[in-house]
Structure prediction request, 225 residues.
Amino acid sequence: MKKFVLSLVVCLAAVSFVFADKISTDKSGFEKVSSKIYDAVYDMRYYSDYNFTGHRITGYKAPVAYMTKEALAALVNAAEDLRQQGYRILIWDTYRPQKAVDDFVKWINDPNDEGNKSFYPDITKPELLSGDYVMAKSGHSRGSTIDLTIIKQDGSFVDMGGTFDFFGERSHPDYKKISKKQKKNRQILRDAMVNAGFKPIDSEWWHFTLKDEPYPDTYFNFDVK
Prediction:
């Protein structure tokens, strides 16, 4: 009997693990970034074909940015910090539908579609998935992650020593082979985001997630429109 109970507990634990994450299409906890940050600039790469796949990504039906209300409130603070330093934010991606992530994986598994090789010149397509450059589940789909950079108030370019979605060491925040000015620019963005309550990752200087994200176990799948 004890063995049966133990087995049942193990099975239930396994089931709980499998179903720990859930998919939702409820967007009531989200807002458009433009509703709170008046001077943000948008270059929504997955709405265009200028991305590593070479095609517009499933689920992106408009070049707009959504975030959870909590993440957007924090981003408002970061934007104000940067504004006082003479910068504006330029956004590449925020909330990303699960169907978009599925599109990434489908493309990676298609050996006949190279996409835009300039984004991954030193690795193969399969390595994008096996090397954790592209994940089958993305924090972006939880709604509190953003990919962004800074530009000057007049809209002019700020050199960050690398481009968005470049899959390689140059994208690491602590990459050494860039200039002091480029390092400083990366640090300006990082400091503003961290001070506002976001956490960075060690592989992409442009990627930040709200520390206390409201939906840590939920992956959303409504269209961006």
